[in-house]
Amino acid sequence: MKIRDLKIINPYYAEFILEGDDKEANLLRKYLMGRVPVYAIDSVLMRKNTTAYPIEYIAHRLGMIPIRVNSKSPASEYRAFLSHKERKVFREITSRDIMFESSDVEVAEYYPEGVKNKNGYDIIDILPGQEIDLELVIRPGIGFRHSKFQTALSSYEQISDTEYRMFVETTFQYTAEELIRLAMSYIKEDLKAFDKIL
Fold first, then answer.
1. 179 phi and psi, to 5 degrees?
2. FRET partner for 191 with CA separation of 20 to 30 A, picked from 29, 72, 113, 114?
3. Where are the beta strands (DSSP E) in the chain?
4. What are the structural domains of the chain?
């Protein structure tokens, strides 16, 4: 398996040629999407919710928000809070309303040049008189276990018997180049572990 002709379209999207067979192309695609660990909102503790949305829906929306942890020695768990009481007007609650306990934790966002609306990811709408108060638990995981930990979308097309054009678009926790490097290192690591079992 060999990678060549890496083209970085933007920091989070890349294309490259993989020399190998279809099994190797599919293996790399799966590892790009689901093997590299990332953080996500894993549990939601509800203190109060008078909105029209059930807590399961809100928890799902929160789990899909990409989280980045900027630490050389990250913790196994972080806390955050989402609390708002609307008094007068209709309001959108977005990822910008999440308050993180640690300054090492942030929502992973990317806006291409020219995008004017940089308000974060929409979570729910809140009406006058409604209130929400949640505690969020952020933990690491991998996409193989749950989609909230998915790191990218990836696909490929066969261009010859031994060449595949691969595409990867990350969910902003890693750049495309970082994710490719990490996915390749996890493939090598897992193959060594598997070899020991045999």
1. -65, -40
2. 72
3. 2-10, 13-19, 38-49, 67-69, 78-85, 91-94, 99-100, 105-107, 122-126, 131-141, 152-160, 163-170
4. 2-36+151-197 (3.30.1360.10), 39-141 (2.170.120.12)
* Rounded CA separation 8/14 (Å): 5
What's the rounded Cα separation, in Å, for the pair 23 and 26? 5
According to DSSP, the β-strands at 13-19 and 122-126 are: unpaired
* CA-based R_g, the chain, Å: 20
pLDDT digits (tens, 9 = 90+) for 25-65: 999 999 999 999 999 999 999 999 999 999 999 999 999 99
From residue 2, alpha-carbon distances to 20, 28, 64 in Å are 7, 11, 32
Q: pLDDT tens, 96-112?
A: 999 999 999 999 988 87
Total residues found in the chain within this entry:
198
Helix (H) / strand (E) containing 12: none
Residue whose token pair is 């749950």: 146
DSSP class of residue 77 equals: -
Task: Enter the pTM of the model.
Answer: 0.88
Taking the C-alpha atoms of residue 48 and residue 44, their distance in angstroms, rounded to an integer, is 11
Cα 25 to chain centroid, rounded: 22
CA neighbor of 149 nearest in space, from 157, 140, 160: 140
Rounded CA separation 43/134 (Å):
10
